[in-house]
Amino acid sequence: MRAFCAVLTLWVAIPCLATPQNSAQEPVNFLRDVQPIFQSHCLSCHNGEKQMHGLRLDRRADALKGGDSGVPAFVPGKSSESLMVKYVAGLVPNIVMPPFGPRLSSDQIDLLRRWIDQGAEWEAEISTAQAPRLNHWAFQPRSRPAVPAIKQREWVRNPLDAFILAKLETKGWKPAPPAKPLQLLRRVYLDLIGLPPSLVEQEAFLKDSSPEALDQVVNGLLAQPAYGERWARHWLDLVRYAETNGYERDATKPQVWKYRDYVIRSFNQDKPFNRFVLEQLAGDELSDLSEQTLIATGYYRLGPWDDEPADPIEDRFDQLDDFVSTTSQAFLGLTLGCARCHNHKFEPLTAQDYYSMVAIFNGLERPRDGRTELDLPLGTRQQLVGLRARDEKIGPLEKEIAQIRDAFRKQHLESGKSSLFAEAVKAFLTDPKQRSDEQQKLVKQLSQQLEEEVNQALPEYLRQQISRREEVIAALRRATPDLPRGYFLHEETHNPPATHLLIRGKARQPGPEVFPAVPAVLTKRPLEFPPSSETSLRRLTLAKWVASPENPLTARIIVNRIWQHHFGEGLVRTSSDFGVMGEKPAHLELLDWLANWFVEQGWSFKKLHRLILSSNTYRMSKQWGQYGGEDPENRAWWRFPYTRLEVEAIRDSMLAVSGQLNRRMYGPSMFPEIPAAALQGHSDPDKIWKTSLEEERSRRTIYSFIKRSMIVPMLEVLDLCDTTRTTAKRTTTSVAPQALTLLNGEFVNQQARHFAGRLLSEAGNNPEYQITLAYRLALVRPATFTEQQAMLAFLTREEKGLLEEGVDTENARIRALEEMCRVIFNLNEFVYTD
Predict the structure, then answer these.
(1) Which of 535, 75, 97, 514 is nearest to 297 (CA)?
(2) What is the percent of the chain where pLDDT is above 70?
């Protein structure tokens, strides 16, 4: 009878997450309601490797066998005869279960009773009717829907249209009419490269009246380097990219911009998404490891980092939590981070699932020297091995040189020949650990002076000893040159530390040990994590599973994200939450068809873009129709949605229209100009922000330096993503500071001046030509007659007012034109695709 006493001995003060349900309303679910008790409080003593008193509780069959006494832990259908219930309810004399911590509440005991009385079904034995969460659509294998038959066949350009039209036809609805050619042209340009088409590109498109004209434009844009610059930014939002650590010091992440460049190159190369996944999650564990795959693993290191945490152990798990939360949302569309302190309250995701994912990442280490982050060498595996071998030879030589210099330095100080004053000499001779604050200050101030003395006084025989070693070091460096550096984490051993389920998510309250695994709800059988001699290979195992065509989530999630960036909303509108609490897909059949097609086409982004942009669904106008009352959110996709451009596309478009855009790609980031007033709130306003020259500042916005504690005001006001966590979809706000930024901001006014200069250069002094050219450049359409007349009147009025203020005629005309350019930049139409 007492064999079961140890089952709950680790039961601690954790509130049971199982919420009792009325049995008539909902059966008890083992995974959601009962398993948390076993995982958190039982399995450390009753698991596959350790069975106190012979009892094993990680499998139903073993629990039914019981422990050494041979008495089952529970009897299905008979809670009154089950030892588990008797012990926790205090029905057996002299046995108190749990022996430590608070007793189970009556509701918790009732839950266990009902689970047993309902048959004590366990994991895979749970029926569909009993486990609606486990049978959630997103956790099931993708279906292979047939392309639906439709009536209006002439509207269908590809299967995507058939799925959309079929739903509309069931309602008796019709899609919106097509957008006008120039509207479509501007939409496609801003969508794919984030820049408006030039006059030459507009004219070429208008001359081609063939049905395939826009398809050819799409192909050309996908081949432009600007495509990668536009679409890389969407991915950077997901992976919480920034170039500093945040927190008080907000130090710069060394070489992190190389990750940004890696993403841009990946999109331009049309790197298959499954390969993109492998490189970021496990680039250092791939057989074809390279400079680029190492840079890709910088993904893990992009988040905030506290260089002086109050509790280093807790901070370590905060970093691991960042890996788990970001990876689960960005790649799997799951809110697994909610299971750090307890089983997920709404999803079939347990604390065991969470910490099993933590175990996958637990071998990663952050290279650093105290508060200072370090970068690492980049290269092939062979190059890295060669560099390590070289450094192993150089290290002892450098140590010998240091010892020679240290010994002579001490001798020089003790000889009394130093020109330093006595207190300084004493400070240098004092053990560094024993130096007072004043002595440390002296050492810092006078180190250079002392080294110059030592160099001059160094005897010839010591110089020769140092010189011989330096020559060997130089030869080693010539034979094996230094490698470029990158910013990424690394695994120092193939045997990561043990991972424990943390009680209440607290690092100083470890519970039972857990082992690497992925969420049980997504797999039919556990993943096998092979042994390795270098790293643990756990991340590579995870990456291969994520990138597998059989994974039910990965392809669905990424095609949904691509759809979202083209249409403003995804087919699943909660694009990083495909769980039970996420929104249901408006078109599940279309989502699965697209996901299957994407995988079959080699996980190619560019092919998916071509498919979507060649559809009539994409080419609809934004015309509001009679269906707006019934479907104001356009969930049936009966028209093209209104979507405001992101701040990057707005800023880049201004640079392109003004003629100032610097197309230089890659490399260290530029620093846009920041108003002095925005810097005054910082303790060190003169050092917190560099300012680049105007030519450098005129690069595309993706190359802007992103400092977590000092976001460029224009970017922040116009809704740059939250850089501290993964962002699935940016918030679009309409607030007064946006209007003030676009009307009065120095950047906008500067571009308006350049725009006016361009109009004068290309259209001469004719106001009508200037207006026509301005509209074509900025809005990709001619001005209407009404707009032309309004702008002419505006120019006349502005020029007259300036003349009355005493401005000369030529400058009055130029300044009036600048004001018109500023007005055009502030038109609502300018910040929307069409």
Answers:
(1) 535
(2) 92
